[in-house]
Amino acid sequence: MDHFFMILYSLPLLSLLYIIYKIIDQRRHQGCYILDYQCFKPGDDRKLSTEFSGEIIKRNKNLGLNEYKFLLKAIVSSGIGEQTYGPRMVFAGREENPTHEDGIFEMDEFLHDCIGKLLSRSKVSASEIDVVVVNVSMLASIPSLASRIVNHYKMREDVKTYNLTGMGCSASLISINVVQNIFKSYKDMYALVVTSESLSPNWYSGNDKSMILANCLFRSGGCAMLLSNKVELRKKAMFKLKCLVRTHHGARDESYGCCIQKEDEQGRVGFHLDKVLPKAATRSFVDNLKEIAPKILPVREILRFALVSTLRKTLQRAKGGARPVINLKSGVDHFCLHTGGKAVIDGIGQNLNLTEYDLEPARMTLHRFGNTSASSLWYVLGYMEAKKRLKKGDKVFMISFGAGFKCNSCLWEVVRDLGDGNVWEDCIGSYPPETLINPFLEKYGWIQSEDISTFKLPE
C-alpha cells in the first residue's frame, strides 16, 4: 500500500519533470544555424569596366547632355569600382529589348553554380533538403524559381518550397525569418535559402533620372545558404541566429512610393528611386532599432541610454544640442550593412557613431561587387571572414533596407573561428585599396564643361 501511495504522489512530479523536459528539448531543436554559405562570382567577361560602361551609356539614344552629366556625378560618387558584374544581355548589346529567357538564364547560371558548390562542400545531398526558400524580387517565372531548383537537383516530393518576389533588397532576412519560424515547429531539418536579383529584364533604357540611377548601383550577384536546426550539427555551424526583427512602413504613402517599379512617360519600365528615400530609410531604421536594441544590448547600456535621454528632456536643452546615441558596440562586435550605396553606408555610420573600421566591409563590398540587392549582406559577411575578423563568440549585427519600405535586422553569434577566403579569395590582399576613387571622372570629366547648344557625342 505504501508503494502505491508513493507512486501516486510521485505522478504529478514526474508529469512536471516530463513537461519541463519536453520544453527544454523543444527549445534545443528550435535553434537556427548557418552551416555554410556560397556567394556567386560571375566570370571576368562580365566585369563592367569604365570604358565598357561608357559604351553602354552611349548606346542609349534617349540620353542627352544633362543626363550624361547626372550619370557621371552619380557614378563618381557611388563608391562602386571597376570590378563589378553585369548581366550577359548588356554585353550582347540587347539591353533595350531583353527577353524573359534572359532573366531565366541569368538565374540558372547563378543557381547551378552556387547551390552545387554549397552542397558539395557541405557534403549534404539535395535529397536531404527539407525546405527551399528563394527570394528574387523582380523576376516571376512559372514554374517558380524554387520549383526549377527542385527539378534540377531532383529533390524529394515532400520538400517544402517558398518563392518570394517583390520583397526588395531586405528579402534575404525575410527568407531567414521564414526558415526560423519553420524550425520552431519541426526538428532535424535542412533548409536551403537562395537570394539574388534578376537584372536582365529590368535594365532601364529611358532618360528618367530617378530610374537610370538604378543602372549605376545594381550589379549581378547572389548567395545560397544552408541552414539547420539539428542539435548534433550546432558545433559545426558557422553562425547561430540570436534574434531577428522586421519593420514595415508600407502603410505610409511616402515610404511606400520611395522605391517602386513603374513605367516612365514613354512606357519604359524601370525602378524609381525617390528623393525622400533617405528620410524613409532613417525612419524605418529608427523604429527597427527601438525594437531590436533591447534584445541585443546589455541592461547597463539600456539603462544608461534611458537615463541620458530622460536628463536631456528634463533639462530642456536647446534644439541644437547633441542627441544621445545608443552604443550598439556594447553588445555588437561587427556590423554587416546593406550596400545600398555610399550615402546609405555613410548615414548608418553617422547615426550609430561607427568607425571606418566598422564600415570597411560594407564600403569594400560596394566597391568590389556593387549593390547586389538582397544578397549584398553575405558579400559583406564574406569580407569579414576573409579578413579573419570573425572569432568564436563574436556578435554580428545585420541591417538591410528594401522597397515597401522595409528595414530588417538580425544578430548572429559566431559559433567557431572563421577565416575562409570564399568569394574574396583572389583579391582580399588588395583590400582596402589606397583610394576608392573610380576612373570615370578622369575619363569622362570633360563632359562637365560641354554646352548643351553645341554638344555632340563623339564617335
Automatic annotation (TrEMBL):
Residues 330-413 form the Beta-ketoacyl-[acyl-carrier-protein] synthase III C-terminal domain. Residues 26-312 form the FAE domain. It catalyses: a very-long-chain acyl-CoA + malonyl-CoA + H(+) = a very-long-chain 3-oxoacyl-CoA + CO2 + CoA. Its EC number is 2.3.1.-. Pathway: Lipid metabolism; fatty acid biosynthesis. Pfam families: ACP_syn_III_C, FAE1_CUT1_RppA. GO terms for cellular component: membrane. GO terms for molecular function: fatty acid elongase activity. InterPro entries: 3-ktacl-CoA_syn (IPR012392), ACP_syn_III_C (IPR013747), FAE1_typ3_polyketide_synth (IPR013601), Thiolase-like (IPR016039). Keywords: Acyltransferase, Membrane, Transferase, Transmembrane, Transmembrane helix. It comes from the Eukaryota. It is an enzyme of class 2 (transferase). The keyword Transmembrane applies. PANTHER family: 3-KETOACYL-COA SYNTHASE. This is 3-ketoacyl-CoA synthase. It comes from Escallonia herrerae.
